[in-house]
Amino acid sequence: MKTRNLQSPKLPKPLRAEAVSRLDDHAEYSQVAWSGGDFTNQSASGVIFDQVHLRRVSLSRTKLPKVRLVDVQLEASDLSGAEWEKAHWRRVEFIGCRLLGAQLLEARAEDVLFRDCNLESAVFASASFKSARFEKCVLRGASFESADLNGVVFLDCDLANADLLGSQLVGADFRGSVINGLRAGAKELKGAIIDASQAEQIVGLLGITVKEPD
Predict the structure, then answer these.
(1) Which CATH class name applies to 16-205?
(2) Which of left, alpha, beta for 91 (phi over 0: left; psi -120 to 50: alpha)?
């Protein structure tokens, strides 16, 4: 499966700087730039970010069910422990962000890039990715259980002990990534792309023992 090139966020220049201290239910934030805001532990439902740049913003432990991000770039921001169930992302970039233990169940992501992010123990259970890349990301112990990862690229990532059980991986590209202890079977790995150095690890995951002839 060939993955098309990602579409970058469509951000107008210049964006209007805005200072916000509280996220409100069903609020829409459009064509603005936030820098240094702290929204830790806040909760709001149905929030929309449209053409927004977030830099060094803390969204740690926020609860934002059905949050919608369209044409958004998050840079050096903290989403650790965030609970964003049924989030919808389109043309979104996460650059140098922390998402440790983030709960992103049933997320719908299209044209989404994660670069230099720490997503250790993040949960993407039942998420759907359409044209997405993870580049140089820490994904140790992350869960993609029952997720649609068809065509997703994992470039130079650490996927040690990640859970891919029940996921779809046709065309998913793991070349150059660490896959020690990956939880996945033959059903999930059918159609995935690996490099030669990973082949022995995959064989081990499938419970196959390779021996030289006696």
Answers:
(1) mainly beta
(2) left
